[in-house]
């Protein structure tokens, strides 16, 4: 082949690549591909998306409409915006032969937690079923009782009687200690004292480490903390034999991958619920009227909540602490993940567009939760909006709220998460006088996945306000 022909051949390949990659041709069926927000050569929109994903997506939507594709290094992400019911139908309940949750989260399960692709997709359904049953309504009374005992212990050992402290640290530590003991068991928790610290380091680097094509050797703190976490879990998971999490390892059945599986479960248990409990407390503290309503409710309910005679069923908790639960739901509306993700397995139709095989199909819970037609004054914290509707605080997540995902793969920890945050919030307000010391921090703008973290610290002042049997040390 002459040199000229060779150059022509390369140019032809390049043009074919550009046409396919950028969707300049319509699909075979004649339906157009969605418009593309191209960004810069090679890195696409990585910089803008990475800086403030929500703002970037809202700007794209204004420019391109309800369906558009964003190019990121190694990833094409097609976003769809629509009323809740339409999104539930097309995204959460779409045909499994067309879109896949498992393939969508593989960049996390495999690249971050180190699970093998094959094992994960084979075992995924049974894992989900096992966890859903272990954390289901039937077990809540027992789990809730243990949570309360652990919270009371943390008030003695972590909070103390009176102090000023960083609210994020206080709530994260309290909730994490309690949920670890409840889900992984006391023996496992006692054997793993370094787990919390290593997890904080790991979680700080989580999102960067999920970036495709970014080599992990550049992220030394991430690699070190993950190694330590996996070592701790490998050595100690035998102690979790009597805990709910053990059912998961039985469903998985492959010893070699169990530590990675349990690290995934630990991340799911800790990461989102901790931030959610922080924002719930901070939002209530920042609004005097809301705080007064919460205080009235907890004064009435907490004596019963702390009585050993009460069976803490799901219905009991939500019917005795409805307003506190609406505060949690409203917090989860405001702080929801910017992106939820699936992978397109075969070309699929959404409205007039064809979405390509291989694209990540995405919705934005954070953007949907800010639709002013559904949520007037959408940036404000207004728990009354849900109370007026009368929808059960937990059932809101089957209607207009997407914080826990949806369809078959909906978060299996939803009920447990709601219960643990409601109980912690109620007890903090019942047992302490709490005040904000710092202004409310902004949410971390650059975070795309999971409940938003605060962008800076926020101190609270708290003072123990009552006598309680068994709490003499305080
Ligand atoms: C406020 C707290 C929480 C939030 C906002 C949250 C949110 C989510 C979301 C959005 C998903 C993906 C669902 C989808 O895309 O359809 C998910 C999956 C998951 N969540 Fe949660 N979650 C929370 C708490 C928990 C807790 C406490 C646990 C366990 C104790 C848990 C366990 C899991 C697991 C294991 C999965 C993966 C399911 C799978 O692989 O199919 N989550 N969660």
TrEMBL record:
Positions that bind heme: 411
Keywords, in A-Z order: Heme, Iron, Metal-binding
InterPro entries: CYP450_sterol_14alpha_dmase, Cyt_P450, Cyt_P450_E_grp-IV, Cyt_P450_sf
Needed co-factor(s): heme
GO terms for MF: heme binding; iron ion binding; monooxygenase activity; oxidoreductase activity, acting on paired donors, with incorporation or reduction of molecular oxygen
Record has Heme as a keyword: yes
Top-level division of the source organism's lineage: Eukaryota
Pfam families the record matches: p450 (PF00067)
PANTHER family hit by this protein: 24-HYDROXYCHOLESTEROL 7-ALPHA-HYDROXYLASE (PTHR24304:SF2), CYTOCHROME P450 FAMILY 7 (PTHR24304)
Stated family: Belongs to the cytochrome P450 family.
Protein name per Swiss-Prot or TrEMBL: Cytochrome P450
Organism of this sequence: Galdieria partita
């Amino acid at each position: 082949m002459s040199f000229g022909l060779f150059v022509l051949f390369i140019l032809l390949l390049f043009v074919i690549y550009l046409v396919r990659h950028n969707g300049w041709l319509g699909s075979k069926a004649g339906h157009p591909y969605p418009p593309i927000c191209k960004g810069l050569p090679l890195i696409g929109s990585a910089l803008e998306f990475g800086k403030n994903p929500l703002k970037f997506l809202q700007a794209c939507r204004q420019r391109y409409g309800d369906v558009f594709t964003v190019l990121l290094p190694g990833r094409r992400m097609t976003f769809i915006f629509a009323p809740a019911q339409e999104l539930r139908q097309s995204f959460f309940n779409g045909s499994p032969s067309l879109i896949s949750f498992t393939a969508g989260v593989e960049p996390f399960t495999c690249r971050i937690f180190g699970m093998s692709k094959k094992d994960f997709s084979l075992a995924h359904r049974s894992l989900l079923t096992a966890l859903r049953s272990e954390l289901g309504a039937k077990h809540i009374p027992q789990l809730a009782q243990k949570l309360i005992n652990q919270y009371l212990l943390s008030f003695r050992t972590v909070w103390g009687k009176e102090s000023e402290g960083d609210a994020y640290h206080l709530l994260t530590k309290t909730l994490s200690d309690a949920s670890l003991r409840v889900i992984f068991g006391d023996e496992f928790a006692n054997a793993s004292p370094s787990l919390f610290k290593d997890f904080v380091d790991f979680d700080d680097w989580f999102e960067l480490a999920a970036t495709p094509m970014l080599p992990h050797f550049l992220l030394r703190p991430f690699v070190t903390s993950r190694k330590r976490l996996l070592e701790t879990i490998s050595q100690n998971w035998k102690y979790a034999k009597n805990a709910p999490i053990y059912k998961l390892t039985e469903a998985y059945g492959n010893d070699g991958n169990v530590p990675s599986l349990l690290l995934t479960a630990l991340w799911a248990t800790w990461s989102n619920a901790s931030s959610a409990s922080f924002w719930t407390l901070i939002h209530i503290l920042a609004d005097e009227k809301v705080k007064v309503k919460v205080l009235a409710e907890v004064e009435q309910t907490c004596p019963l909540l702390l009585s050993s005679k009460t069976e803490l069923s799901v219905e009991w908790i939500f019917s005795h602490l409805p307003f506190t639960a609406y505060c949690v739901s409203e917090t989860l509306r405001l702080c929801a993940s910017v992106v939820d993700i699936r992978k397109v397995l075969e070309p699929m139709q959404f409205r007039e567009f064809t979405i390509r095989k291989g694209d990540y199909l995405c919705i934005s819970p954070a953007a949907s939760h800010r639709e002013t037609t559904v949520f007037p004054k959408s940036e404000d914290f207004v728990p009354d909006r849900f109370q007026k509707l009368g929808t059960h605080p937990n059932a809101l997540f089957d209607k207009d709220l997407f914080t826990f995902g949806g369809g078959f793969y909906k978060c299996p920890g939803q009920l447990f998460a709601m219960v643990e945050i409601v109980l912690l919030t109620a007890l903090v307000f019942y047992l302490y006088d709490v005040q904000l010391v710092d202004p409310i921090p902004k949410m971390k703008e650059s975070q795309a996945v999971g409940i938003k973290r605060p962008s800076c610290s926020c101190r609270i002042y708290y003072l123990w306000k009552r006598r309680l049997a068994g709490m003499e040390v305080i």
